[in-house]
Every structure is written in C-alpha cells, then in structure tokens.
Amino acid sequence: MAKKQFRLSRQMLFTYLLLAGFIFLFAPQNLTKKLQFAFARIFCRPLSIGRNISLSARAQQVFADVVSRREYNKLQNHLANVTKELLEKNQKLEELSGLRSRLQALEGAKLLLADVITASINGSRCELIINRGEDDELAEGQFVLGENSIIGTITDVTPRTAKTKLITDPTSKMAVYIRKSKTVIQGNGRSSAKVKLLSIEHKVKTGDYVYAARKSGLLDTPIVVGTVAQCKRDDENPMLWDIIVKPVCDIKKINEVAVIIMNPQH
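Request: output the structure for the sequence above.
Response:
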C-alpha cells in the first residue's frame, strides 16, 4: 500500500516559521549564541569560498580595467607623439623651402635646420650649442644662418651636437665685404663686432650692409652678416676707420638655426 504523500500548505509553513521565530526570540541568550556559533561553523567554509570567488572575480575585473586603461593611455600618448613629430617635420620642411627660395644662390647646398640647446651671448664667450653634429654631416668651418643672415661658424663637433662661434665672440674673425671693400670683422663680446684696419679711403657709411665673403668649399655666395652701426675715424690712427657692425638679427631670441653644408654627401 502506497504511503500517503505529506503536503505542507503555505499557511502551515508560515505558521511554523513564525513559531520558530518566537522561540528564538524568547530563548535564553546563551542558547541563541550557541546556535549562532554552530551556524557560523557549519557555513563558514562555503561562505568564505563564495566570498573569495567574488573578491577574485572583482580583482580580475579591476586588473583588466587597469591594464586596458594603461594600454589605451599608451596608445594615446604614442599617437600624440607621432602627431607632434609630423607637425614639426612639416613645419621644418616649409621653413627650409622658404629659406631656399629666399637664398636661391645656395641651390647646390644643403640647409640643415637645428635647434639651439644652450646659448652664451655676451662676454668672453659668444656661442650656441645646437642639436646636430657629425652624424648630420656637420664639420668645423661651416657657416650658420639665423633669420637668413650669417651669425657664426661651426667650431667644435661631436656626433650629435656642435658649437657655433658667433660673429660677436672676441675670438671670432670673419672675412667680409662692405660695399666693394674686403676687410675682416672681429667680435667684441658686446653683441657687435669691429672692423679691423680699414683705411678711410674706402667709402663706408652708417647703415651699409656687411656681407660674409665667399669661402671655397664652405660658402659660394656672399650672405649678409650685419649693418654698420658706427663709422668714424679711429682715435689712435685717424687714417683708419673705427667701425662697429651690428648683426641684422636678434641673436638673443634665436631658437633655431640653419647650417650651410656645401657638397653634401647625400
């Protein structure tokens, strides 16, 4: 004979649970405490496993978010760097094109743009350190342009840097033309240069342009250097001119120069 199936209605279940609740409510505290500890001992293992799984999943998600964010930031930074580099190269190309169009006589030469790293303008040293060197075909004696004018020459060269001695340096001497007169200027360390030993027979006046003379293998056409800022008879020798030449560009504000490379290798 089949056993009778026992069915528990919802009302009965509610009643049992309610009675169990009242029992726990009015039971002695030491008994309920024992039941709590027993419950904790029985279910602590499954609960800890579940908590560890939850924490592990959350940690993995956080790690994945951090890694993906880092990768995204790296890609964004790389894109920013490439964009900036491209803009600078386009700008340098435009500057070179404009410079070459203004200095058409340098058609057979290579103009290499360079940034100024450090500058010493006044005093016993007037020089620039630029970020180009032997690796870029730079060599001693090459002429350096600033704002379409000669501002100095390359003196010391390393593989990646070079020193430009400015025309205002006290140890700098450069052959120049004033009108049709060939002479030499020497820096005075005070943002200008002096003309050495030019007879008053040569017609020179304030405002005349001064041009760097041609130099074989380094410069095949005269390029402006400065203007005559002062022209008077020399106090010690009245038969000679006392001439001060000022650069035609503000060397103190120059951040970029161009080096003239004659007969480039490539």
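The chain has a mean pLDDT of 81.
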